[in-house]
Structures are given as C-alpha cells and as structure tokens.
Amino acid sequence: MPSKFSCRQLRETGQRFENFLVDRGLDRETDRERLRTIYNQDFKTSFGTPAPGFSSMLYGMKIANLAYVTKTRVRFFGLDRWADVWFPEKRRMKPGSEISKHHKSLLATIFYDRTEYLHGKHGVDVEVQGPHEARDGQLLIRLDLNRKEVLTLRLRNGGTQPVTLTHLFPFCRTPQFAFCNGDRELPCPLGPGECYELHVHCKTSFVGYFPATVLWELLGPGEPGSEGAGTFYIARFLAVVAHSPLAAQLKPTTPFKRTQITRNPVVTNRIEEGERPDRAKSYDLELSMALGTYYPPPRLRQLLPILLQGTSIFTAPKEIAEIKAQLETPLKWRNYEVKLRLLLHLEELQMEHDIRHYDLESVPMTWDPVDQNPGLLTLEVPGVAESRPSVLRGDHLFALLSSETHQEDPVTYKGFVHKVELDRVKLSFSTGLLSRFVDGLTFKVNFTFNRQPLRVQHRALELTGRWPLWPLLFPVASRGVPLLPSDVKLKLYDRSLESNPEQLQAMKHIVMGTTRPAPYIIFGPPGTGKTVTLVEAIKQVVKHLPKAHILACAPSNSGADLLCQRLRVHLPSSIYRLLAPSRDIRMVPEDIKPCCNWDAKKGDYVFPSKKKLQEYRVLITTLITASRLVSAQFPIDHFTHIFIDEAGHSMEPESLVAIAGLMEVKEADNPGGQLVLAGDPRQLGPVLRCPLTQKHGLGYSLLERLLTYNALYKKGPDGYNPQFITKLLRNYRSHPTILDIPNQLYYEGELQACADVVDRERFCRWEGLPRQDFPIIFHGVMGKDEREGNSPSFFNPEEAATVTSYLKQLLAPSSKKGKARLSPRSVGVISPYRKQVEKIRYCITKLDKELRGLDDIKDLKVGSVEEFQGHPSPLGGLRGRVSRPSLPSRWAPWKSFKAIPPL
C-alpha cells in the first residue's frame, strides 16, 4: 500500500527527528532498533500531527541522501553538519554567497595564474596555522572520517602602510568546509602589523578530494592614483583529503613528469635500419595492385597553420580561399574524391603534430631477456596499452643516442617493432647499434604512426572513379530487380526473429536484394539486435543464393570477431576470418582460431592465395584488412554481398576500403552487388584529431551521411521506407527506466523495452539501490585525478575504490535479500582512461582479498568505452569522468551519452 506521505514530508520529518535527537543528547545513537523505540515512544507522541512510520521516514531520508541505512544501523548525515552547532549563525560565512558576477569571473580565472595570487603584495600575506601540507600551491588538510580540524588563515599586513580588506570570498561547493570570520565587519582597515583571521572548520563523512578557494580583495596603500594604490587580490587554494584504505594503496607510484613536445623530430641524413618483422611465413596472397604513398602536398603542410586560424574565405589569400571553398562545398559526386582526399591529408598532418606529444627524451633501452630474441631491444613506452601512442607490430620509430644529439650529423637508428607487451615494445635495430649497445644506454626517441590505413583509404577514393560507384554512394532509386522469387519461404536459423517484425522485414529485404544498387541500412539503436539481424541475413543469403560470395566487415577486430563467432555456429566450413599480421594472437578468441589464418604449427599467420580464399562463401575482415583483397585484385564481381557492421563507427573513406575495387554497379537488368550497412549514428562515431576535419564532414560515416542527407533514407509521414531502411525498435537489453531517457532524447520515443522480465528486474529489489525498482545508482565521487611516471593517462583512486566497493557488494558469495546470484563475467566496468582500467583491475585481482579470491574474477571485463561498443555486459559499472571538467572534443553531448551501452 503506497505511503500517504510525500517524499518531501518524509524528509522534513526525518530532519525534525534529527533535531529532536540533538536536543536530547542522543545524536551519537546509531542502533536502528533503539532509534525506532525513541521515534515511536518519544518523538511521535510529541509530534502533534500524524507522523509517518519509522521505516517510511528512513526511506525518505535515504533517497534524499540524508541518511545511511542498513538492517542494524542508521546514521543521519545532518547530524554531521557541525557548522550549525559549532558557532553562531552570525559568525558563519556562506561559501559563494553574495558574490558579484565580476568576482565569480575572477574566481574562474585565478586558476590559470595561481602564482600571481599566491604571493603577498605590499607586505600583505597570509599565515597558515593548523594541520596542513603545502603541495603545488595548495593547502591539503588530510582527515580521518568524521574527525574535525580547524585551520586559521591569518591575513597580516607586514608592510609599512595601511591597507583595507574590502571583500573576503570563501568559495566551495561541498559541505566539508565551514568558514568563520569572527565579529569584524568588512570593509576592515588593517594598519601595519594588524591581521584579520578566518577560521576554516574542516570535517567530512565521505572519502574523497574536496577543493575550496579563499579570495581576499584589498585596497592598496596610498592615495588614489599614487603608486601602490588600487585593488589587489590574494588567494589560497585548500583541499580536504580523506582516503579510503584501498584508495591510499592506489596513489601514484612515481611523480608525473610531463613529456616535452619535440616540434622538429631529429632524423638525420645518416639512417641505419633494423630488421623488419617477417610479413608472414606463408604469404601466398597476390599483390597485383600497387599502393601509392599519397603523402600530403608540401604546400598544404605550409598552409595548415593559416587554415587553422579560421580566416574568412572572402579575406583569405587565394590559395587559402581555394582550399576553404573545397572544404565548405557540400559533398557531392563531382567533388567526392577531391574533398575527402583533402580531409584525409589534413587529418594526417594533425596526426603528425600530435604524435610529437609522445616522443621521449633520455630514455634507456635494455636487451630483450627472451633467449629466442637476442637481437631485440626493449623500450618502456608509457601509454602504449591505450594507444597513446598507437604502436603495432611492423611499425617503426627513430632513436638517437642521447650522447650524440649535439653532434653535427649523428646517426639516426630506425627500429622496427617486433612485439608489443603492455607498456613496452621490442625493437630490431641495425647491427651497427647492437654492436656497441650496453644495457641502460639512453636515447632520444621519435615515434611515427602507421600510414597504411591512410594509404588504403586514398586508394579507395581513387578506385571510386575507376569503377563509378555514384549510384551506390549517392543513390536515387532502386532498380527493383529481385534475387529470389517474391513467394520464397525463409526458414530462420534464429527463431527469435519470427516475433520481431522489424528484424524480419530487414532480413527479407536484404535477401531479396531489391534495394540494389542503393545500400540497405539497418538502423539499430543499442540492444535492438542489429548484429543478430545482419548475421541471420548472411546465413539466409548463403542458403538461398548458391552463387553468392559475401564479405563481412567491421571497423574493429572485436566487431569482426563477433561476426565470426555468430556465423560459425551454422556455417563452420563456409567462413574464413582473415586477420592482420599485427594482431596479437593472444587477443584472438579461442573459438574462432580454427577458422582464421593463424597456423598453430608454424606459430605464425598465413595468407592463402586468392584462388583459395575465393572458395569460401564468407570472408570476414576488418575494413582496413579488406584492402589486402583489393591488392590481390579479386574479380570485381566475386563478392555479391558486402556487409558492414557498426558502420556508424568508421569514416566514410574507411568504409570505402571494403567497397571500392570489390563491388561494382552494373546495368539495369543486373544492378550488381548488395551493400548492407548496420549501425547507429547516435553512438560513437569516427575518432578524429583535426578541428578542420571535424568541422567539414570527415566525422560523418557513410551510414550517417545517407541517413542525414539522402531522400531515400529520410523518415516520412508513414515512417521509413522499408525497401531501403529498417529501424529496429525492440530493445532486448535495458530496463525500461534505463531506456527511457535516451529513447525520448534520441530515438523519438519509439523504442520498446522487450528485455526478459526476470533478467532485467533481478536487481530491482537489491538493498543497495537508493530507490527500489529503479536499477540505476548515481554515485558522485569527489576524487582527484592523478597521473604517474611518464604516462599521460589519468586515474582517480577514490573512484576506483568506489567501483571496487560496489563490485564486492554485487559479487559477494553470500546471498543478500533482493540480490540475484551474479557471475563476474556478467559485469562490465567502463572507464575512458587506460590507467584507470589498470588500477581497477589491480584492485580486483591483487588488492581486495574478497574479490581476488573469486575463482572467475578474471572474467570480469574492465575496459574503455570503445571496447564495449556493441559488446555490452548484462550489468554495467559506469565510471564517469566527473572530476575533470573537460571531456574529449569527439564526445558530442548525445554521442557521449549513447557511448555507454545501456543495461
């Protein structure tokens, strides 16, 4: 039976009960049953009006985050609001109150020039009395939970002239600070030797990092207009720090050292190359088509700084105006190759600039200890595990001996990457270096990036003109030529599609092929089964079209692996997964190794001949690896169908790599191959670096461009045209309350919550939920972002400890009321930073005794947003970056929200 009291009434009753306890000296009581007795026998009888029950009152306080409640204990957070009882109201200063817009603006700017405000002026300075630690211009007050400390900030005029304190602003957004300035009113004149005291009372009931700023505004000595007169400011930056025991073990192991950017990498005329890693022991795949270098034009490199300044097209020099005109012209078939090639060049130039952030100075190398690799050197590369920088097998870097950097023409050593292991790479250098090498020899290291993906994208653009693909890239109509009779009966491999009309509709149109030459789009919001639909369509094509040959692609290895796993169930002998030789075989799922190009006997990748690969009905690759089939010059009509999953995640030229040179548009009676794009433009899009390419369209995938600009894929009064596009509507993953917000904001309220009721509600009664039947917890953590060593990646100890605490509650072996049994493989923890991923993994596998003792704890997936793209876990542990005010620019507001797979 629902409560007759509102949440506000429950909260207000709880707060009155708090005051009742304080008045009677019972504020330290935490035993739930004793508090129940006091509430029912003493408080309610004096209440005067009908009062809610004890449990209802606790519920109201709990959901308002005003009480911590367990089966046996209750702690009211309001009782810790010590500011109300330590000193009278008139002596307290309200942080941030009555601050003018000018002063708020000033507070926002002082962080950019702390030094100016930390130093005293005109002999006026701040003395600090009380327990604190000065670090990096900040006063740290380290506290145990619920322990009080008082800091006195004494503004003293140590000069020879009087000054006037006109304003004093304590500024903080958390209740861990209370400020008291005594009885002295402002403005307050301070003669030589006089002081003004501010008492800062510090206490916290929560672990975390809680910053505050105090700003003094003073009027300088002397008459107006004289030297020294005028307003000046002094500031102090405070922080209360309370660590949990676990977070204390996660503190930085070594101080962070920012890498100095090398604007001009040192590559001399004398270059000695190491040995390239073997391409493959058995590389029989032909290389018939040449691949150009496609370097950016030198003149474009010179003009880029001017382009980035944003000069108007009407006032810019002629060359700049011409380039800007190309960028600002909408993408059409007539400018297709020119504009996209220009955007790729601009992106590459930005990549050249950005890679310099990762160059290393005076870093040591050591011999590789593995006996089989006596000629390799090992280099520690912080951040390589999260592709900062991105280093793969076969890439190269340049190294210069630190002792020779000042020579006129030193030798530059070109080292090739043979292996990448966590935060280190193993390199092959010339015998000239190896003959003089000793462990610990230091180098200046310049990184490079792999240009192969850019080169194959440029070639794909070139091929779009050689085999005119405009009817496919800018479709205007279908030619209506079916591949099967309209009355054909399709017996589904996955019977669940029979109850989903949208999935069934999409699959039938794909198999019939009547959309050709236009691509068919499966618009699949999260959890709606777009990959399931695509996989079923592939199986039906193989079954009903004996002459069909299929290329199935995804932008990432994990996406292509998933396609292989799903197809292998019913097509074990018809599929072949082609992996790039740079792929670490340890990262390849075991169940797909029998049908991929890894030869366990040889311990290496193999690349069968074109003739052999043509025997398979389905080839599965990433988009970039599909370029090997183009280089082998597969017959243009060999692939009848090309499927691209997660198509919204790739740049349009990247998708073209798997299309141009492998598919053609034929005459009206035979429209050619069928292209199928599955994805969701509301999720993560392509990752770009250059502001110009972001602004002028390279961030659009082929799927998103067609959905946004092509009339065939526009939504009409009766919905989308099912001949060209199907929007999947049934969500099989999320609880309705989780689905509701993204559904209303981004999917026009059309999504339907169809997840299994038992699965989606198995945690709805868990006692750890602030609100029953609402399976979301928003837990704000005031932690401090840290970095360590040379790693550019951030981590936050308190957030990692909080995530670990929730994992312990969810995975604890003993069952609790309202909690279903849960396996670690059912949980996902998401973090945008690799170092945070590393710290959380360290917590659950090394530091926490309960979690590390679980047999299958290593099955718990901790990874970045990109790693979870399209591969959600039943339960998501979202670790948001609330501590840092800035986010990567690539995370547009709606794409940031949709980047997290809903539960």
Automatic annotation (TrEMBL):
The record's listing under InterPro entries reads:
DNA2/NAM7-like_C, DNA2/NAM7_AAA_11, MOV-10-like_beta-barrel, MOV-10/SDE3_DEXXQ/H-box, Mov-10_helical, MOV-10_Ig-like, MOV-10_N, P-loop_NTPase
Q: Which UniProt keywords are given for this protein, alphabetically ordered?
A: ATP-binding, Cytoplasm, Helicase, Hydrolase, Nucleotide-binding, RNA-binding, RNA-mediated gene silencing
Q: Where is the Helicase MOV-10 N-terminal domain?
A: 11-76
| Pfam families with a match to the protein in the record | AAA_11, AAA_12, MOV-10_beta-barrel, Mov-10_helical, MOV-10_Ig-like, MOV-10_N
Where do the Helicase MOV-10 Ig-like domain residues begin and end?
A: 114-241
Q: What's any one GO cellular component for it?
A: P-body
Per UniProt, residues of the DNA2/NAM7 helicase-like C-terminal domain are 700-871
Q: Where is this protein chiefly located?
A: cytoplasm
According to its UniProt entry, the protein's GO biological process terms are: regulatory ncRNA-mediated gene silencing
Task: Indicate the segments forming the Helicase MOV-10 helical domain, all copies.
Answer: 291-357
For this UniProt entry, the molecular function terms from Gene Ontology, in alphabetical order, are: 5'-3' RNA helicase activity; ATP binding; hydrolase activity; RNA binding
Q: What is its EC number?
A: 3.6.4.13
**The reaction(s) this protein catalyses:** ATP + H2O = ADP + phosphate + H(+)
Q: What region holds the Helicase MOV-10-like beta-barrel domain?
A: 358-447
Where found in the cell?
Answer: Cytoplasm, P-body
- Enzyme class, top EC level, equals hydrolase
All copies of domain DNA2/NAM7 helicase helicase, residue ranges? 499-569, 610-687
Q: According to its UniProt record, which protein family does this protein belong to?
A: Belongs to the DNA2/NAM7 helicase family. SDE3 subfamily.
What is the protein name given in its UniProt record?
RNA helicase
